[in-house]
Write a structure and sequence with these properties.
Layout lengths: L14 H8 L5 H4 L3 H22 L2 H29 L3 H16 L22 H4 L3 H18 L7 H26 L8 H30 L1 H11 L2 H7 L3 H16 L7 H24 L5 H7 L4 H27 L1 H4 L10 H20 L5 E2 H8 L3 H13 L3 E4 L6 E4 L8 H9 L13 H17 L6 H19 L11
Antiparallel strand pairs: 1-3, 2-3
Amino acid sequence: MAARQRLFDSWFVPASLRVFFERGIWSEGARKARGPRGWALASLRAGYLALRGFVADQCNLRAAALTYITVLSLVPLLAFAFSLAKGLGAYDSLQSEVIRPFLDRAVGVLPAGASEVRGLPLEFLPPSEEAVAVNPTQVQLRLAIEKVLEFVSKTDVGSLGGIGLLLLVWTVIQLLASIERTINAIYGIRRDRALLRKIPDYLAIVLLAPLLVIGATGVTAAAETQAVVEWADRTLHLGPLLDVLVPLVPLLSIWAAFTFVYLTMPNTTNRLVPALLGGIVGGTAWQLSQVLHVKFQVGLAKYNALYSSFAAIPIFLIWVYVCWVTVLFGAELASAMQRGATRARSADGGAANQASREDQGLLAMLELSAAFAANEAPRPLRELAERCGIDEGPLWGLLSDLRRAGLVAEVQGTPEAAWLVARAPERIVVTDVLAALRGRPDDSWREPGGRADRARAALLGLARAERESLENRTLRELAEERRAGEARSAEVRGGAPGIEGLPA
């Protein structure tokens, strides 16, 4: 698949550097390295996987699509969130303690009088002290955001009626579902939340996010008060430390917001550390992008001359696009760290060939057969992927083929996808698995009595020889043989039996 090309295929990169990233950092010695060198190599592996995934998953196109959806859904989403805040009595605090300070830091202070002269060219804005601290791009972007907030604040959700309220909620759900599908694709997850799960989960996100931001802002404001600073300096001797940490609280809030997205949006169980590191990198990239985009007007000065008073429109669209690019890159990094144990075995990132699919599919069937023989619960997809050393996305494709052949079944009604064998392992032989993964041939192109019949006869004879081979054993026999081998290995090393690639 073209999208799965290697990261450096279209770049002018020295061959030695390409080999280092595609092979060197994945060698057994590199993976076993410890100390600063091991940490550096692990960081390079995660960064390489994130960049490769960003290209392979076409995140630039996904960011553009999310920008379009966001612009269409922005007013309904904010109207819904603001109405919830008003119902909780937190709307005024949200405006004065969160939104305005955030915009002042991220975009800049609006010059005095700018709100009354939106239609005038920027050179006619009245001079003010605040105007020195901002530039034309900041003014245009801040005016666009202020216009959206003004429109949202005037929206009366209560007057929409039942149908209007349902449409509003549906718009919010569709926006969050689009975000979930994009992040699921990055994590290699092919199944979205069920609708009955989407509604409470998404409502919780819309409700909790403003409250968390308000709480973080309140802590920041409290830490900045003179009384708190004096008490911390006098009692805890933390005055100099507060001087350093308090200015970092906005950045910490952004890290927390990104981490929250990476923990809650994917339809899987995520570990905190990968999500946190992805949030730190993604949040920092977002902050840097704001500096480049707004403060220095990188590539945006031409819009003021081209669009005149409409310059806020492309500036706002590019700002939203850049935000999504940073969010998706952070998600790629979190995904790379989350699935690093499985992706280390397929560092080239290419689509698996048929021989690899058969190898991986048979391994997955052996894992499920072993769980069945031991009377264990169905294997969640994430756990099965870790045990087999296969990414969740390709593994889902293998299991889907096996399910169509009636060899495995997916357990419904569980928090995450779980799988088990659909019939007893002693009734499944190796060729059953291979036939399921190969699929049925398409005979629509074949002419009866043509030259292709000889090729088909050879393939049918080979398949018959495979079925009659002594190696075409049942999965139960293979699972028992593997368990016996693991027991012997455990006796030799004096530990408990484990699965190759995982701690015993």
